[in-house]
Amino acid sequence: MPVAASMLRRYGALRAAMGVTVRHSTSTFSWLAIIFRTALPVGLTLLLMVGTLFYYILPELEQQFINERREMLRDLAATVWGMCDSLERRVQAGELTREEAQASAIDQVRTMRYGPGGKDYYWINDLAPTMIMHPYRPDLEGEDLTDIEDGSGRKIFREIAYLAAHDQAGYIGYTWQWMDQPSRTVPKLSYIRLYEPWGWVIGTGIYVDDIHLAIDSILGHMSRILGLILFAVLLISAYVIWQNIVAERGRLKAEESLRLHFSDLEQKIRERTFELNEANQHLMVEIEERREIERKLKLTEERFVKMMHGAAFPVLLQDRERVVDCNDAAVKKLNAQTRDEVIGHSVGDFFPERQPNGLESKKLAQRNTELTLEMGSHRFEWLYRTVDGQDFLVEVSLSPVLVGGKQLLYAIWRDMDLERTLTQALRESEERFRLLSDASEEGVLLHDQGVITHCNAAMTTLTGFSAAELIGTHIKEYVAPESMQKISARMRALEVSEEEGGILRKDGSRFLAIMRGRPFTYRERDLRVVVIRDVTEQRRMEKELRQSQVRAAELETIQRTAATYAHEINNPLTGVLGIIQLMLEEDNITPDQAQMLSEGREAARKIRDVIKKIESLKSLEFKDYTERTKILDLERSE
User: In this structure, what DSSP letter does residue 311 have?
Assistant: First the structure.
């Protein structure tokens, strides 16, 4: 109350000072000058706020929505592409025929759904173009799509086949039926990707109307909040103008006595005007920073969850005791049917009582957790147990991460049994035959002082060159120039080497690979075998994991900053409410003034309630997003 009383006294001095400073021959002219001087800064400020909202914030937000949807489409198409590639590797290994693998892929893709209501889908056509599979248009399967047109008359499947053949992947916009409703046609944005070994074009898309609806919803929320702010500012401005007019009338009667204090009052006017302008600017900066914090917070949470659930390898999110979340790959590795069989259970439910080294699992797990928190990350081998009692060994990469203000552990599994089996098989193959195995999934070639003498099928798949094109040529034609000097030095030294560098494809593109070289003698000739493994995707995933840890660490900072700004906004509102309450308690105010003050107090309280609702709405949206993600994963697993 002493602070509010001091502010009230200073405000009374300001009104008196304005009455002295603005001197004209008639009171009518003074009123107009007061109204203009008070309303102009407020009007310009409000105009700047509205212009910033509608011409900068909303267009940027809409573009961000579109970019996120494009990234989502690319990730979804990559899932199906990866499934097809996995089946193709089984074909190369002799586990399946090409026809069986393609039939299995068609059956799985036909039932895959995502999005609200689980009605967004995938389709498959070839480069002819001919429809291979479409879940909502089975009448097109096996049909020539060359002359199929969308609502605007474009031959869309001809454009899709052209895009896939020349660019391998890309985005295309057109009009198409709404999900499973053939009678309704709307604009659609799709992403297609060519799976070259089968000649399949994998496609999926979203409807542009969904993005517009999301933007309209956000615009509605912002408009209501802005309306409340405008209403409150108008009430306060009207009250200030009215008080200035009243002071002006008093000035006409007391001008002689106040002129003695004119210099002091004029200085107070300048100080108060500066304080008001500075407070107004500070408030605008805080509002803008709060919006940016909320946008970054939501974007970080969505990308983190999407990256985890989109990973092809098993990932667990856990605290010290229980599993908080996991992706479908982890559910499959644990032989569970749904994520509910994993999430919420104790971490100790999924490993045996003792590890292979004889130590108790619970104590060793606690020690690994402490090492992770101390070093920032920790990698170790661990024996897990599936829900049906089968044990398996994996390499665990454990890292701390902040999610929702809580410190959790982010665990990535790498199958050690599979890696050891492949390594042993490769060693036995080298010792037994000393020949290249076409069954290897990695590219393998033999060269004599750089001239290629033999290569396997995987090498032709990686580079796009046929075996006849590779054999007899020098290896430098396929290694990126910046990597060739280092590799040449290894070749001349005739030593075991492992280098990472770029490999050139036939189409001019390149990929990042690890090249392991080993010299050996075959039929009295010094040759060298080189194993080439594409690690482009592995490096990309490692980079994304590092970025996710940084973003998660930012999450806690953003939440603390948001709470601070809310506190700073509430403090001025509390002072305004205190001033209004003191004015209402004065004995000499008229009923009209009391009514205006009551309305101003109610508007300030509404602003305070809006701030509280914004904080609660932020938490609610994150929870709703998490629940929708869980429901979508359950539907996919079913």
Answer: -
Structure tokens at 92: 């190369």
**Tokens, residue 175:** 């009009």
Residue 618 CB partners (closer than 8 Å, separation 6+) = 294, 297, 298, 562
For residues 328-348, give the mean pLDDT. Answer: 90
Of all residues in the chain, what percent are helix, strand and coil, respectively (each to 5)?
A: 60, 20, 20
d(CA 442, CA 513): 10
Strand partners, 409: 318, 400
Residue 636 clears pLDDT 70, i.e. is over it: no
Both structure tokens of 415: 């199958």
Contact (CB, 8 A) for 323 and 330: no
CB 445 within 8 A of CB 456: yes
Q: How far is CA 132 from the centre of its chain?
A: 33
**Per-position DSSP letters for 414-474, written without gaps between them:** EEHHHHHHHHHHHHHHHHHT-S--TT-SSEEEEEETTEEEEE-HHHHHHH---HHHHTTSB
pLDDT for 28 beyond 50: no
Answer for the pair 245, 534: CB distance below 8 angstroms, yes or no.
no
Taking alpha carbons only, the member of 222, 284, 239 closest to residue 604 is 239
**Distance (Å, whole) CA 362 – CA 351:** 9
Please give the C-alpha separations between residue 251 and each of 35, 244, 254, in angstroms, as whole numbers. 16, 10, 5
Structure tokens at 24: 């004209």
pLDDT at 198: 93
Sign of the torsion angle spanned by Cα atoms 592, 594, 597, 599: negative
- Residue scoring higher pLDDT (521 or 366): 366
The total number of residues shown for the chain amounts to 638
Q: What is the mean pLDDT of residues 392-420?
A: 81
Neighbouring CB atoms inside 10 A of 144's CB total 12
Alpha helix locations (H) across 139-207? 156-167
d(CA 113, CA 76): 10
pLDDT at 631 over 90: no
Instruction: Please state the rounded mean pLDDT for residues 37-54.
Output: 74
Question: 4: pLDDT confidence band, cut at 50, 70 and 90?
Answer: very low
Contacts of 627 by beta carbon, 8 Å cutoff, 6+ apart: none
Question: Residue 628 phi/psi, 5° resolution?
Answer: -65, -35
Nearest to 4 by CA among 590, 596, 583: 583
What's at 55, amino acid-wise? Y
The vertex-439 CA angle with 418 and 197, nearest 5°, equals 105
Angle 27-52/208-258 helices, nearest 10 degrees? 160
Rounded to whole angstroms, the Cα distance separating 546 from 561 reads: 23
Say if residue 618's pLDDT is above 60: no
C-alpha triplet 201, 305, 634: angle, nearest 5°:
75
Kindly report, residue by residue over 482-522, the tens digit of the pLDDT. 777 777 766 655 567 778 888 888 888 888 888 888 887 76
| Lowest mean per-residue pLDDT among 49-53, 369-373, 406-410 | 49-53
Beta strands 169-178 and 131-133 are unpaired
Check whether 361 has a pLDDT greater than 50: yes
Longest pairwise C-alpha distance within the chain: 120
List helix spans (H) across 319-392.
328-333, 361-375
